Amino acid sequence: MRIIRSIPEMQKISGALKRKGVTIGFVPTMGALHEGHLSLIRQSRKENDITIVSIFVNPIQFGPQEDLKNYPRYFKKDVFLCQKEKVDFIFYPQANRMYPENFKTSVEVKELGKVLCGVSRPNHFCGVTTVVTKLFNIVQPAAAYFGQKDAQQATIIRRMVDDLNMPLKIKVMATVRDPDGLALSSRNIYLNRQERQDSLVLSKALGLAREMIRHGQRNAFSIIARMKALISSKRSAKIDYIAIVDSQTLKPVNTVKGNCLITLAVRFGKTRLIDNLKTGKKIGDRSHLFSRVRSSAK
Amino acid sequence: MRIIRSIPEMQKISGALKRKGVTIGFVPTMGALHEGHLSLIRQSRKENDITIVSIFVNPIQFGPQEDLKNYPRYFKKDVFLCQKEKVDFIFYPQANRMYPENFKTSVEVKELGKVLCGVSRPNHFCGVTTVVTKLFNIVQPAAAYFGQKDAQQATIIRRMVDDLNMPLKIKVMATVRDPDGLALSSRNIYLNRQERQDSLVLSKALGLAREMIRHGQRNAFSIIARMKALISSKRSAKIDYIAIVDSQTLKPVNTVKGNCLITLAVRFGKTRLIDNLKTGKKIGDRSHLFSRVRSSAK
User: Which residues does chain A have with pLDDT short of 70?
Assistant: First the structure.
């Protein structure tokens, strides 16, 4: 495994591999790797000749009041995990090289980035699409892997790749959870004991929604109301949003049918967590809620 | 020479060529090809294994009051010219495939697109950078060729390619002119006889600026004032702007030194023409004002 810090060097390596017909699988991350990331790496290794993982805490996707400074950075541990997973290259660029002084360009998916998480994080998705475009151009992958936990991000990136005809495939893999149901996130380490306990209400609320739908409930408002009541019962929980939206347009639906996304963001103390559940004939079967748990001995 | 209308087919061909290590030179155009375009094609053929020309009148770079409908379209003649120049592929996509109904993504270079031509054409450059990104992703060139006549466009595209780490080189070729000095443009055909005659004042004004600089004048305001007086002497001329700017930041300069751009946009009747001149030690020598003229027997 090689660690590449230089942007031109990474681009040169990728370009040379591409010209040789080698397929590159790409897992873009902000580091602090957990089993969710590792599931993406494993899928990439299955489907491509070589796998590149980027580790870059992207400053432009954080708001001024957000946790850029405190975002967990465990580079040594990340390197160890990547090595264990037989990653071929870690791309580890510096922020001042990714965004030199006269940087001026942005890539934006209109509308989709302004709803749901975009309401409380207005520039977040523009930061994501801009950095992902840069990383795709540097790494030149045949396929890139993202987690379903960040459902809005996945929808926006798919839209961007389609709209801009980027020559690669986007693969979105199921959310990986702790055995008790909490969706894995690098931010979970911020939670204190009480908050960690209370946060279980998120997967429970999604499970409740799924049960209601299984029993025939199709009214989005009724489902959201029950989820809201359940989540609000936890004292440390402050709901940012709970929504049921079309999974492509991200527009709220009144009636649950087809491919919907039941999605939520809730603060526990200072920590904002997100989680979601896909519904729909095709996608519902693949949602795997609770079906994948973190293997214990890592 | 093959004409490719399908986006996925073009992308497949380019991808396959790239995997074989074939270098692709790319000349994006809106058709109505003239000697300016042909000079780009010839340069591309010199420097690459194969050359792809796109012909696409990009709707999103036209304002609502602009000439999208009337923009000259001479596809058969363009095909003939490309064949003669030994172009390998013409990429000729349809607008409704380039911009399907749910298209939402834009690529924008902030600030640079809002000055000069961006004042009277507020969404123009965002339309240009978005379509150029799409075309680059479809055609996957090693190098793309643009004309210096569209100097602001060239500056913006260079900035975008650098900022987004696009894996290709941008080459900007000297403006090609009619023997009497008028910069070639597909829009020149809109001019009536009087306007065509009056439009010569543009290259004359740039020549005047160059002479003033040669004789030691460095004050931007004095140069602009003389240009303005000269251009205003033509009854059909309505000045949109005359500016002397830094060629990278496009910010106005008070004193002409280093790499500046003397640039202007002037309306003759309904036709808006642009022209420019680069100054500076390095670039000034390559500006070739008046040094390249259209060969007569075409």
Answer: 281-298
- Which chain A residues are closer than 8 Å to B164 by Cβ? 105, 107, 130, 133-134, 137
Q: Is B4 helix (H, G, I), strand (E, B) or coil?
A: strand
Q: Which residues of B87-120 are buried (b: 16+ CB within 10 A; e: fewer)?
A: bbbbbbbeeeebbeeebbbbbbbeebbebbbbee
CB atoms within 10 A of CB A255: 11
pTM for the whole structure: 0.94
Task: Look at domain B2-173 and name its CATH class.
Answer: alpha beta
* Interchain contact A7–B (C-beta under 8 A): yes
Check CB contact under 8 Å for B105 and A19: no
- Is the distance from CB of A58 to CB of A128 less than 8 angstroms? yes
Q: pLDDT grade, residue B254 (50/70/90)?
A: very high
Nearest to B137 among A105, A159, A167 (CB): A167
Domain assignments of chain A as residue spans, ordered by start = 2-173, 186-293
Residue A149 makes CB contacts below 8 A (sequence gap 6+) with A36, A175, A176, A183, A184, A185, A274, A275, A276
* Residue A155 DSSP SS3: helix
Supply the DSSP symbol for B13.
H
CATH class, B186-293 region = alpha beta
pLDDT tens digits, A45-80: 999 999 999 999 999 999 999 999 999 999 999 999
Smallest CA–CA distance from A167 into chain B, residue: B137
